[in-house]
Prior knowledge:
Layout: H1 2-17, H2 20-42, H3 48-74, H4 79-102, H5 105-151, H6 154-165, H7 176-192, H8 197-201
Amino acid sequence: MVGVAEYRVWDVGYKMTGDPFKAVGFVLVSAIPFYLGQIFWLYPTANTIQKAISVGMVGTSLYTSWVFGTADLSLSYDTAKIISLVTDLTAAYIIAALAYILFDDTIKAHRLKKQAQGAAAQEREYQRITREILRELAETQKLQRETEKEFGDAGLVQAQVDRLRGSKPKQTQQTPMRSFAATVQTEQTEDKNPSTGGSSER
């Protein structure tokens, strides 16, 4: 019965196009959804939405066969209507098949798994980059501490670094060593200058 119905579909396509190969396209729009809908129905983990899609595809394919069969028997062809039916159903079946895949619970689970794995891999990459940056920062801080220890003046080291960066050196508080040296130098200057009050008293 299906074979006879599909032959009528092919015959309509052949009479409309005059090309036997183009007529096969009419058969595909009618036959493939019929068998594909049955396979979709027999899918072991098909949910309610998927079963509804499969029933719709089988029902629509049978309606398509009826339209073509009626046209073949009556020899009355509404070319514009039939071509519109073929093109619209082709798009509808493609969308229905994609929806069937998207609504599949197993595919959803695998997609969520892949998304979780991707997020975990991305987080691992962030952690790896963070560790590398902190490791480099620790090496830099260690080098800075060694430089300050070698030259004994953190302000002097920082001022030199600022000069190399091209930024204005920050004014830092004098270290006790510098303050003591400045005080000694001031006292020596006062001793050499007899006009100061301290020299007059002595």
